[in-house]
Amino acid sequence: MDWSLRACGRKGHATYAPDEPELRERLHADTPAGEAWRCLRCGDFALGPPAGSGPADEAPIVLRGRALRDATILRLLAAERLIRAIVLLALGYGVLRFRGSQHNLRETFQRALPAAKPLERALHINLTDSAFVARIQKVLESRPHTLTLLATALFAYAALQLLEGVGLWLLKRWGEYVAAIGTSVFLPLEIHELTKKVTVLRLGALVVNVAAIAYLVWTKRLFGVRGGRVAFEKERESESLLEVEASAGQISP
Ligand SMILES: [Zn+2]
Quick one: three-class SS letters along 207-248? Predict the structure, then answer.
């Protein structure tokens, strides 16, 4: 799949006329149909005036090829985190609401239980002593303090997810670090959960998270891996078409 062409199809070609005459010439072409400029993303010549112009240093950084594919994957990860943040916020809000009306709910439940007795007898089941009812009662009787702690934990987790999501979406290096560390922190907990019971959901979540961390650390060269930030910047520059053209212009006499 050609990511560059797909992006050009969606956003239009990223043509740019640099002020430097030599560089300008390399990116420009005269055709019978009029002037054409080389797209900094897909490399094709596009008919019409350039989308931008100015010094080469001020040209927009156009993500292309592998960098563009990486950006798409990061934004998918970001979207997943933002959705998780919304769910966590809703849960936290729910817990707070529940804390406010806990007393009423408990009373309703206590009143409803005896009312269910005739039904129990008719169906030959014992609701009142079931583990499910016991669990509901336990939640209803949990202390407000515990619920406040729970809501705080949910909001804190939501904030972390929000931070990761925004950082990844904006393709910021700090966002990649926050995501890599933030996801790693919860790995021991996920593994601990798996030792208690293996479910497809838990196993899937662990695999996805480990893959995401490995992907971030490897491709973004985090924590000094594969030369770290310096190597990462160099790699991105070497893939920039403007840089390629500029260095080609310097080499040729
Ligand atoms: Zn293009």
Answer: HHHHHHHHHHHHHCCHHHHHHHHHHHHHHHHHCCHHHHHHHH
User: How far away, in angstroms, is 68 Cα from ligand 1 center?
Assistant: 12
**Amino acid making up residue 182:** G
C-alpha 45 to ligand 1 mean position (Å): 8
Give the pTM.
0.72
Q: Measured on CA atoms in the order 190, 194, 197, 202, is the torsion positive or negative?
A: positive
Query: How many whole angstroms from 251 Cα to the centroid of ligand 1?
Result: 25
- Amino acid identity at 16: Y
* d(CA 50, ligand 1 centre) in Å: 12
Tell how far the Cα of 168 is from the centroid of ligand 1, in angstroms: 24
Residues belonging to the chain: 253
Eight-class DSSP state of 43 = -
pLDDT tens digits, 95-125: 888 888 877 888 887 887 777 777 777 777 7
Expressed in angstroms and rounded, the spacing between residue 21 Cα and the centre of ligand 1 is: 22
What would the pLDDT profile of 178-192 be if each residue is shown by its tens digit? 999 999 999 999 999
pLDDT over 60 (residue 251) = no
Distance 16 CA to ligand 1 centre (A): 11
Q: What angle do CA 164, 168, 174 make, to 5 degrees?
A: 75
- Beta strand 34-38 with 45-47: parallel, antiparallel or unpaired? antiparallel
